[in-house]
Write a structure and sequence with these properties.
Helices cover 28% and strands 20% of the residues. It is of the alpha/beta class and 433 residues long.
Amino acid sequence: MKHYNLLFLILLTLTSTPSQSEEMTVKNTEFASLFNPQETDHILLVGFEDRHINRIQNVSSSYHRRGGNYNSSTWSKRITTQIETEYGLKKLTEWPMTEVDIHCVVYRIPANKSVEKTIAQLAQDKRVEIVQRMHLFKTKTHQYNDPYYKLQSNMHDMQIDQAHKMTTGKNIKIAMIDTGVDMNHPDLKGQIEFNQNFVHGISPSFSTDMHGTAVAGILIAHSNNEKGIIGVAPNARLIALKACWPSSANAFEATCNSFTLALAVNTAIKLDAKILNMSLIGPQDPLLEILLNKAIKKGMVVVAADSSSKNDSNRFPASLKNVISVQSMKISFTNKTTKNQSIIAQGENVLTTIPRGTYDFISGSSLAAAQVSGIVALLLELKPEMTLVETKQILQNSVLASCSATNKELSYGINANIAILELCDQQRCPKNI
């Protein structure tokens, strides 16, 4: 099936430089222009099926090696060169998307050629499966600077202390696609099982990134360490995949694109993550849809931040079927959540970790999504075989029950303890000693 979506690119490099990385073929002189918004209108992403990918790929544990080991078949490289010549394009980089047998290539269209016409021509090419422009994705947070706000009120509202008597998400792997994380933060040190920077060439920082550090704190901050805060699932294991780059130094806002996100999702699948947290939002994307559907088919629970407006067209990946979408909102307790709506979680004035061992109050659906991912980890520790349908039902019911059990008009949302109790009504749950 061919996709004709438009591409809005800013290109990724893996942890190594283009000259070191086997899969990156971008010339150093061209690299900077790939991140120039003024040039992205003339850059395309093309994909086609290559059944040779998984035959040549080294599937041993060496994929943990920095620098990557993505391999492309000679056949696929020959096809990309043919397309480059036939259509008068410039090939910038190519790589195999190993989990879905698709070989991807990024081309630049010369300034004197029509982008729309080139896309239309490629769409008719029998060799091409996907042709699209690169899309941009934005993280969803804004910062509050009131240090005297009730500490971790979101955790109190969720009755997390009661939930932790049953489960702490022990050994559940959560893949977080975001910016980097301060791995030496006293509340995060030792909590991250694996990390990789897919945008090293444009954003080499990792430990100083704000947004990813804030989301990680909500997910897996240490408990009972006499420091800072606690995470929703403090005994889960985090896979930190940097596919987004901050808009400026010390900024919470960050940008990702189709290419960087695709490589990160592919890696999350390879590492057998049980949960994928995507605290970001953007337009519908064919390549990411293929990868996320593969992840879901393999049993991964995908949680994504959602816009509060159902009329917003930029709601992907939260808008994708079988992705658990999460909104942060203040709402009257008389309103109800239906089966087709997003999960509501507390995302206002949430205290969490930020770089250099510090803390701050942050707001946004990014934090709300992280809380739901943490609750899913709590549930999966108790019932590893839990289906997506069961997970969604428990989450939805816990929002309804939390709402009806209180008489508050503001800041209600999902209740972790009620979610655990509902699961334990269905099976015998041992206490976590």
